[in-house]
Amino acid sequence: MPTLYLIRHGQASFGADDYDKLSAIGHEQSEVLGQWFAAEGITPDLVAHGTLRRQKETLAGILRGMGLEMQPEELPGLNEYDFGNLLKAKYAAGGEPEGMMTDHKSHFRTLRTTVAEWQRDEIPNPPEMWAEFTGRVDAAVTALMREGVETVFAVSSGGAIAQAVSALLETPGVHQTKMQLQMKNTAVTRFIYTPRSIYFHAFNETPHITAANSDRLLTYA
Fold it and tell me: Could you read off the pLDDT of 155-186 as tens digits, one per residue?
């Protein structure tokens, strides 16, 4: 059956001046995933990413690992929400927690509370409304599951992939955040689809990360 593989980007550059690029580990994760797809005989008919650099670099690494050259579609709807500017909107008057963009624990604790407020439309002047975010993600995912295409690889981000799953399962927003916070870098989530139905088939899989390489390749940011 036709399958959409939603792939989270590889490890980005957390704490750096420019987060939106893969670390050395992120590049390796991407190529190793591509090698796994090739070994399994899974070849895409369509590949896509958002407009973010870390998504583009991840797809390039996957294709390199597979020994393929393909022209990807670029769908802005696959982009992550702008957490940095969401924080600026929330803390426009100051009072932001220390280390929220450099310390992992502070970052994810702040993310949980901030996104919950955003989902309730409690943050003034956010970079986009929660409904706008969910709408663009849903539209991008729907556009990818088209007739005549059997296998789709789409590189996105944790929040967007979690939203796609949450929408399919019709869960409250709090579960979107819970899914996002457990998502691994280069993890694969699968939807199977027909012209009439969409089925949730797998979430957050990393078959390319094994006991032999997990100490190096298992990351979350």
Answer: 999 999 999 999 999 998 889 999 999 999 99
Domains of the chain (ranges plus CATH)?
3-81+128-217 (3.40.50.1240)
Token code pair at residue 85: 């500017």
Ordered DSSP codes for the chain = --EEEEEE---B-TTSS--SSB-HHHHHHHHHHHHHHHHHT---SEEEE-S-HHHHHHHHHHHHHHT-----EE-GGGSPP-HHHHHHHHTTTS-PPTTTTT-HHHHHHHHHHHHHHHHTT-SSS-SS-HHHHHHHHHHHHHHHS-TT--EEEEEE-HHHHHHHHHHHHT--HHHHHHHHHTPPTT-EEEEEE-SS-EEEEEEEE-TT--TTTHHHH----
Q: Please list the residues that pair with 8 across neighbouring strands.
A: 156
Query: 53-91 in b/e burial notation, b at 16+ Cβ within 10 A?
Result: bbbbbbbbbbbebbeeeeebeebebbbbbebeebbeebe
Distances (CA, A) of 50 to 27, 101, 200: 17, 23, 22
The pLDDT tens digits of the residues spanning 24-68 come to 999 999 999 999 999 999 999 999 999 999 999 999 999 999 999
Model-wide pTM > 0.85 = yes
Q: What distance separates the 2 farthest-apart alpha carbons in the chain?
A: 54
